[in-house]
Amino acid sequence: MGNINKKISNQDDANVLLPIDTPFRFPSPLPTWPSGEGFASGIIDLGGLQVSQISSFTKVWASQEGGPDNLGATFFEPSNLPNDFFMLGSYSQPNNLPLFGWLLVGKDSSGDALKLPNDYTLVWNSKNLKIKQDGVCYIWLPIPPEGYKSVGHVVTTSPQKPSLDKIRCVRADLTDVCETDDWIWGNDVFNVYSSRPKDRGIKGLGVSTGAFMALNNGDAADSLACLKNVVENFSSMPILNQVQALFQAYSPLYYFHPDEEYYPSSVTWFFQNGVLLYTKGQESAPVLVQPDGSNLPLDGSNDGAYWLDLPTDDSAKNRVKNGDFHAATSYLHIKPMFGATHTDIALWLFYPFNGPARAKIEFITIPLGKIGQHVGDWEHITLRISNFNGELQSVYFSQHSGGNWVSAPQLEFENGNKPVAYSSLHGHACYSKPGQNMQGNGNIGIRNDTAKGQVMDTGANYAVVAGDYLKIVEPVWLNYAREWGPKISYDIANELKKIERFLPGKLKRAIEKLVKSLPNEVLGEEGPTGPKFKDMWNGDERS
């Protein structure tokens, strides 16, 4: 991972190295992937337009102020393009991270997929900006011919328009709608963002270009498009032995808190230890779930007609609650993303029980009694991998009703290129770093404590359970649409009374407001549905 080579103490010092001046490198070289189909071949055909992913850049301009951490941003154009490939846009990133980015460049394989722009429009320049900068920046928008669209900007340090031969516009049917993503740099009137396709998911055909999007206040975000894979095939996706090689290379190391009591297990272990299937109206006659889940109802939706619960015997119930760390299995869902130019490996862990939550009110930590407890807990992280070269680009850490993407330079790695993940105490939300991970506002919120206790190598025991293009035979339980736990019958008001009797008035009101604001995923009033019935199963992750 890239490091800051020199502590920044004086930004006027031209010799100071910023994080971006050190390109990110994985701790270990990438392996040679098994051969087969078009995965990691370097070029993907989108249907008359071939694209290649370029990570070699020529620096054009940089600011040393503004943006994340007020360290500025740097703008690049692609270099060392393969023969007959052309620039489609420019790259930018904040200076507070090691250089780690890419751009797609294009080759016309149909005769009319690419055309020169007719002209340029000046979007913005830094001439009147009172900041530390490398000269003056000019950002240009290509004006495409009729029937074509621009998918990126040109950046110069001269007020003269760039050469028309500098960039190419793309035939409109090979493009899709684009939207802004992460903020890169800017101010009150002008901002730069990374871009992504608006329609994302396993059926989405939009292709991310890696190019930035520059917008003045009031500008619509439709001046640029992304690309589109009109072929709709999966030849660039990894075949099964390539998926296995990818997961062995990048399988996360999962750390549990030293005080954790409720560990994951395999689904089979859960079923083998007395888990019961209840039917509405016949609550007095639950039936044991078969070890393979073959007697689970697979018709219908989450209609409340059926649910699972722990054994009725107290000793068996407590044993199942604690899970079985050694039997824990990583369940993998393999998803095409961005028009099959990327692969998402969604890694799901099953926990038989979710423990009680803890709140922090200013300097006081307060156990929340039964609040947060529920049977059955599905949590996941997702690895996003480039299909051009098999490089891990980012990891998504799910946290209750949301989560966040963390790029490779921001990850912690161990044992080569394996990213480190942390499971929060009792709640099992996923984080990239240890700490309290407060969920709430200011000094009031739910604590999601993470630290290094027991560690699970998720690559040691895993199963690929889903991947439509791979023709995977799914386990029966994956198609069980009902809840993996009962509706909890505890009285939240009563639980709050137990907590509040030790608190002064101000803190009582704060804790009441906090609990009322919690999503169902934290309150734990109902058991969760399985992975296949969550929005991100077919869509992109929520962030």
Automatic annotation (TrEMBL):
It holds the Pfam family Vps62. InterPro entries: Vps62 (IPR009291). Signal peptide: none annotated. Residues 521-543 are annotated as: Disordered. It comes from the Eukaryota. Residues 532-543 have a biased composition (Basic and acidic residues). This is Vacuolar protein sorting-associated protein 62. It comes from Solanum pinnatisectum.
